[in-house]
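Lecture 7 notes: from sequence to structure.

We start with a single chain of 111 residues. Read the sequence below before looking at the structure.
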Amino acid sequence: MNDQNKKPAIGGFSDMMEISEKKFAQKEETEAEIKKNESSLERKNVLKKELTQERTLKHHSFDVFVDQLISLDQIRTRIFQEKGKKPKISTLVQEAFDEYIKNHKKERTNE
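Now the structure, written as tokens:
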């Protein structure tokens, strides 16, 4: 007879229960992990939308000078001392970009 047509041997009731319990536990763990990831992503997405005012974020790497990072860290520390909340360096850089772009546009219109 062909080996492909053979059915696997079935153990006793306790073996089936053990297998069933393992599958159920794995399913619960997977579902819990999915829910955790979904809620985490939802919080991040809501937070990003609130912070960016419907602007789309894109990760991009830049080279910066060490003195620039030191200055940004000093600004961040000052803001933390004043407001009690430490902003992210990326937030400070985004604000700096906005200011630079705004100033650059003014210079262009004055030419």
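Residues 59-111 form one domain. Keep this in mind for problem set 3.
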